[in-house]
């Protein structure tokens, strides 16, 4: 085997320029594949992290997936309804204390109840529509990601009592308000209440920073004229991956619609799977092109070394040895190119990580390219490179092994 390695090295060194070009092709393919995989994986991880952090892992609302069964449906096999008018029910989740206690017994995480309603925040002649969330500050701080995004104040400031409100800093900018300003909150029922701003948060999400406001639960109940009502239970799990199972069990237990963060973003997660398939297809295509360079150089060596092959076979080398010889040459190019590609890919990732910019046009802020540093990117790119190199080396190797030394020597004479 040592002799075969020496021969393979001699063949490659004899065509140093072509060997270098083949190695360069593999290195560029591996390097750009690593950088592209890091960039796409990083953007995916960043997107999923934002989804997980910006919304509850499980959200239970006062809705049901199926409309309530009409009494006539139980009495008759065939029914047809028209002109039904839904009855307004302001009670929200019925007996929320009992529901919460039942969930507390087994849910692996924190839980908070709230009353979500719509309203308008008004100040100095300016109106901004907002989703008004009536919360229990201590419980909300354990569940909501907003608790870590305060630039002034906190949820605990609501616990001091009185008429207080917490809003996003971009909503405050639109209103011309600031910390300590008293604004008017107009509910969907027309009630007006003057509230003092005791906290400003900045999540980086335009929808939240401009369109959400938090008040005490009792204040939201008064404004919406729904005493003691709760229409939402939000759960933050210890393991976000368990969200589907927890949502299914909670819905079966309570009868209310329970939506996991995965279900709420199902179409987006499907798009991510498709994007990953496209990414790895492109990576394979890049390395396949590099494989053609390996095929070209090994084929050329095979053609030029026909006489050497005849001499080696006449000295007792078998067909299997010839296959090994040229297969080793192809894999050697792939291996050296992979190592060079690792260095190139790592360097590209370092350069991309230093790029800074400001992007706020997509509803969220971004200042750096999100990158994922994973050894799997290097392993997968090298695996593709070695596979394409092996295939590119095997085809000429098989041809070389079949050469008849007598025919070669006769042709040479």
TrEMBL record:
Domain MacB-like periplasmic core: from-to ranges: 19-252
Biological processes, Gene Ontology terms: lipoprotein localization to outer membrane
Pfam families: FtsX, MacB_PCD
Subcellular location: Cell membrane
Cellular compartments per GO CC: plasma membrane protein complex
Domain ABC3 transporter permease C-terminal intervals: 281-405
Membrane spanning stretches: 20-40, 277-298, 325-355, 375-395
Keywords: Cell membrane, Membrane, Transmembrane, Transmembrane helix
Membrane topology per record: Multi-pass membrane protein
Family statement drawn from the similarity comment of this UniProt entry: Belongs to the ABC-4 integral membrane protein family. LolC/E subfamily.
Name listed for the protein in its UniProt record: ABC transporter permease
């Amino acid at each position: 085997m040592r002799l075969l390695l020496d021969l393979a090295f001699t063949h490659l060194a004899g065509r140093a320029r072509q060997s270098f070009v083949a190695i360069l092709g593999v290195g560029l393919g591996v390097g750009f594949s690593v950088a592209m995989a890091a960039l796409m994986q990083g953007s995916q991880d960043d997107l999923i992290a934002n989804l997980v952090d910006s919304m509850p892992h499980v959200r239970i609302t006062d809705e049901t997936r199926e409309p309530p069964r009409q009494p006539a449906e139980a009495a008759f096999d065939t029914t047809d309804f028209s002109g039904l008018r839904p009855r307004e029910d302001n009670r929200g989740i019925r007996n929320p204390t009992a529901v919460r206690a039942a969930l507390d017994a087994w849910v692996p995480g924190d839980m908070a109840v709230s009353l979500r309603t719509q309203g308008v925040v008004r100040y100095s002649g300016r109106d901004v529509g907002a989703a008004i969330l009536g919360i229990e500050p201590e419980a909300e701080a354990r569940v909501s990601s907003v608790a870590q995004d305060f630039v002034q104040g906190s949820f605990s400031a609501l616990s001091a009592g009185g008429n207080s409100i917490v809003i996003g800093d971009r909503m405050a900018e639109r209103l011309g308000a600031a910390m300590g300003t008293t604004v008017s909150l107009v509910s969907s029922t027309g009630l007006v209440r003057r509230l003092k701003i005791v906290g400003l948060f900045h999540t980086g999400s335009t929808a939240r920073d401009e369109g959400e406001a938090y008040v005490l639960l009792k204040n939201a109940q008064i404004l919406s004229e729904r005493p003691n009502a709760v229409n939402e239970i939000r759960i933050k799990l210890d393991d976000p991956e368990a969200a589907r199972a927890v949502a299914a069990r909670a819905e079966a237990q309570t009868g209310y619609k329970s939506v996991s963060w995965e279900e709420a973003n199902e179409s987006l997660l499907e798009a991510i799977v498709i994007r990953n398939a496209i990414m790895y297809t492109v990576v394979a295509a890049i390395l396949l092109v590099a494989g053609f360079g390996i095929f070209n150089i090994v084929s050329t060596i095979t053609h030029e070394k026909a006489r050497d092959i005849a001499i080696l076979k006449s000295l007792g080398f078998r067909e299997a040895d010839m296959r090994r010889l040229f297969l080793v040459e192809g894999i050697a190019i792939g291996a050296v190119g992979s190592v060079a590609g690792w260095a190139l890919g790592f360097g590209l990732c370092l350069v991309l990580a230093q790029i800074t910019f400001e992007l706020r046009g997509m509803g969220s802020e971004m200042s750096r390219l999100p990158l994922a540093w994973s050894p799997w990117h290097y392993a997968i790119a090298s695996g593709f490179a070695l596979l394409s190199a092996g295939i590119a080396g095997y085809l000429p190797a098989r041809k070389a092994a079949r050469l008849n030394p007598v025919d070669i020597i006769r042709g040479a004479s």
